[in-house]
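Student: Hello, beginner here. Can you help me understand the protein record under this note? Any guidance would be welcome.
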Amino acid sequence: MNPDAALARFVLAPDLDDDARLMLWRIWADAGDIDDHSTAAYDLFPAVYAALRDLDVDHPWLPRLKGVYRQAWTRNTLQRRTVGEAATILDDAGLDHLHLRSWADSPEHDLPLNQPTPRVVVRWEDAGRARDALVDAGWTPGERAAGGLGHRGVLQRYDQPFDPPESGATIRLTDHATPGESGRERSAAAWARAVPVGRGRAHQLHLDDRIRSFVSAQGTAADSMGWMIELTNALRDLDGTAATTLPTAAESATAARERIAIYAEITGDHIDVHDAETEPDPPGVLSLAREEWRAARRLGLGPSAIARHTPTLARYGLARARRRAGRVRRRLFSPAPAGGGGAPAAP
């Protein structure tokens, strides 16, 4: 058995008897020194320490694992507190917000994890007011992430880190719920699936959206195994409901299936993966420019913002025209495939 898979099974399969779990631990521990293992296993160290502590296991690596566990616990505590403070500010401003995890609830049953920077999502049209509300409350904004390019534009996605006025963790204020998402229509689609939770104006997405976010954002299983714990915690939030559907872009469906297959093999949770519907044709240059103008207005950037991105829009228009011309040439001049049929050859 692959040592990393054994370690993940040790963490994620608590229903096994103690001897079987300890055998999985030994497979990983005996494969090399703690510093020689893959970086993917590091994400599991906090949960590994918690499991070894519960099993009353003594091991030379325990102090090292305990240090990682305490570091993760401290960071997670600060993150939950900071998200709660941001949620209060947005509540007071009358703005809806959603969280991809139940940060404010701090579920006690969650497996410990080296958490990524928490994301607080607001509606597309509310991003400017949400940013201003945090700034007015004394929060310090960091450098904004670059917006999407191509037919999604350069201003239609908002993503910016913020630090609270006192010591705490960084959060990301954003207007898109899942990776690759941007623009008014996509944001509205996510909010149509969001449901209110708790007090105030907080919302959460359904499980399939959270799965999509975890699997897409965490890269391949070789890069990280932390998403497996995120997924396990999400399923536990739903009282153990494990079967759901994962929509994913066609080009990433294979990778998503491979990652989910690893997770299903370890935990027994079955998750279906299907290709997402084909996206509609990208908008024309004029439509995109109009959307960029609206995005600049909602972020309070003023008329000069769209002008700064005119070269990008011009390059997009030129590339789109070239693609259209290339499709026309292929249809007119590509030879028919062998055996007849009259269809143009594949590009």
Q: What stands out?
A: The beta strands are 97-99, 119-122, 140-141, 159-163, 171-174, 195-196, 202-204, 244-248, 271-275. The chain has a mean pLDDT of 78.
